[in-house]
Amino acid sequence: MTTGALVAWGAALGTFVAAVMADDQAQRLRNGAFGAIAGASLGGIAAIFENNKLLVLYGVFGSAIGASAAWLVYLFLAYVARKPAGRRILEYHIRGLAGVHDQLIADENTRLREALDSWGANFARTIDHEKNILVHQGNSDSLNTSIGLAIYNWLSTIVNTFNLVLDAIAETPLDYRCRATLILFGYDHEDRRSGSHWISFAGRLPAHRTTRFDTTSYAYKVLAEEFQSPSFATAEAANKGGQERGGVGRYYSFILFRVNDRAVLSVDWPGKLDEHDPYIVIVRNLFHLEVGPAVAELLASWRGALEHEIGLRPAPAAMTVPDHINAEQAQAEHAHPLPGLGDSGQSRQQ
Questions:
Q1: pTM assigned to the model
Q2: Residues of 143-172 as b/e, b for ≥16 C-beta within 10 angstroms?
Q3: What span, in angstroms and rounded, lies between the C-alpha atoms of 296 and 292?
Q4: Is 34 buried (19+), middle (13-18) or exposed (0-12) by CB count in 10 A?
Q5: Nearest in space to 217 (alpha carbons), one of 188, 180, 254
Q6: Could you give the CA distance from residue 20 to residue 74 in angstroms, rounded to a whole number?
Q7: Mean pLDDT of 132-139
Q8: Radius of gyration, alpha carbons of the chain
Q9: In the prediction, which pLDDT does 237 show?
Q10: What is the pLDDT of residue 112?
Q11: 259-300 tens-digit pLDDT
Q12: CA distance 255 to 236
């Protein structure tokens, strides 16, 4: 190979490598300019040693060829990036093997989120079907038992499904394991508002505490609509400002959903998760849009005082009718007697 060919190939290769080894367009242009200068310099040095000024032109020509080849490579990468395999090539070129590995994990997580979204939509139809059957069941003696079993099955199915899927992808599987519970509120023997776990499922996590919720708890504040539903709270915030329920680290990160004026749903995780985590968003939407409304309809069909299930009483006003209301009702009936009663009264007077 002649000296001119070596200079041309060297200048072309140097400019090509410099032009393609960059992430953005501006950096590639700067690298390409540097490569062109290096190629011309290579030709100049060769011209001095060989005493042949034509070698400078060989260096400039080689740099132009290298820059053109780099431009064509980027056009090719932009074209093939339309397909997954092409995107892998582009990712490798920009970020190396570590970038390709990270992108493979991201793509896998995307497919899992899509699968969970699809499962959630199917399970929502199951919830709606079971709810409609129970709501129209009538005054069956087993209605309350069926309602309790249905709610437990919904909570346990959601917890088990998400734990199964998310355990496989989480760096620390414990971070994504969740628990779910339905919290009921009523009145204690001193007519103070209080609440307790009624139907809950913890999976492999520790069971929920038996300590009752008072009016300083996050659950009560969501029930009383002091906090908007759904309400997300991190473990740090809950342990700092929540009800005292058993020492340091007593709370996980959780989301609360108001069901009605007597019940709140809660889902929690022991890990430090963000409210906008895509998997947390899936759980929040499923409970907020599907589970919560269905549970509210079932509880509206409950026979008897629901608060008795957790050892509490209904609201005092619902247990007895105040005397002044009875007096007002009697006065109204006396002023506007029913026709039949009025006729019989006149007959007795006669």
A1: 0.63
A2: bbebbbebbbebbbebbeebbebbeeeeee
A3: 6
A4: middle
A5: 254
A6: 8
A7: 85
A8: 36
A9: 74
A10: 75
A11: 999 999 999 887 777 778 888 888 899 999 999 999 999 999
A12: 14
Q: List the one residue out of 182, 236, 169 whose CA is nearest residue 213.
A: 182
Structure tokens at 21: 């080894």
- By the 8 A CB rule, do 12 and 62 touch? yes
Give the model confidence (pLDDT) of 176-194 as tens digits.
Answer: 778 999 999 999 988 899 9
* Token duo for residue 216: 């300083």
3-state DSSP assignment of residue 261: coil
Q: One-letter amino acid identity for 322?
A: P
pLDDT value, residue 54: 65
Under DSSP, the state recorded for 13 is: H
Distance CA 271, CA 208 (A): 16
Contact 215, 193 (CB under 8 A): yes
Beta partners for 256?
231, 266
CA angle 154, 260, 320 (to 5 degrees): 125
Residue 335 scores a pLDDT above 70? no
Q: Are 199 and 148 in contact (CB under 8 A)?
A: yes
Question: Which domains occur in the chain, in start order?
Answer: 3-80 (no CATH), 110-310 (3.30.450)
Contact 70, 20 (CB under 8 A): yes
Residue 99 or residue 71, greater confidence:
71
Structure tokens given for 178: 């969740």
Q: In this structure, what token pair is assigned to residue 13?
A: 């290769």
